[in-house]
Automatic annotation (TrEMBL):
<dbReference type="InterPro" id="IPR005793">
    <property type="entry name" value="Formyl_trans_C"/>
</dbReference>
<dbReference type="Pfam" id="PF02911">
    <property type="entry name" value="Formyl_trans_C"/>
</dbReference>
<feature type="domain" description="Formyl transferase C-terminal">
    <location>
        <begin position="29"/>
        <end position="130"/>
    </location>
</feature>
<dbReference type="InterPro" id="IPR011034">
    <property type="entry name" value="Formyl_transferase-like_C_sf"/>
</dbReference>
<dbReference type="InterPro" id="IPR037022">
    <property type="entry name" value="Formyl_trans_C_sf"/>
</dbReference>
<protein>
    <submittedName>
        <fullName>AL1L2 dehydrogenase</fullName>
    </submittedName>
</protein>
<dbReference type="GO" id="GO:0003824">
    <property type="term" value="F:catalytic activity"/>
</dbReference>
Amino acid sequence: VEAVHLIADGKAPRIPQPKEGATYEGIQKKENAEISWDQPAAALHNWIRGHDKVPGAWTTINDQVVTFYGSSLLDASVPAGQELTIKGASRPGLVTKNGLVVFGNDGKMVLVRNLQFEDGKMIPASKYFSADETTALELTEEEKKMAEDIR
């Protein structure tokens, strides 16, 4: 009540807020969201999840910046998959049917579901090695007729 009266009377002390630490702006920058691989799996998961969607936690794979989205801790045996070398990681990741499995320095696993490349293209992590493949859409006769009717 006293503080309200001081404000109402125009006598409340005014202390300027310091600029340092006054905003979250600094942690929203892309260059501050690089993944440090020398951490336990839980810390990696929290880092990826904490930067999901903006600005996106990223790392370097094959000399290209790749941003990770949609992580979860994986508490199972190591799944079968194709190895993927990740810069700075002590152990290669595994591209599996469910996504990209990465390992913390404690040997535990994190599953990443989506990857985004520098050009903005986003793919399911499970499709990493087939990302460059393109397939032509072939319509059946019935579908061709339906497409023509829609036109």
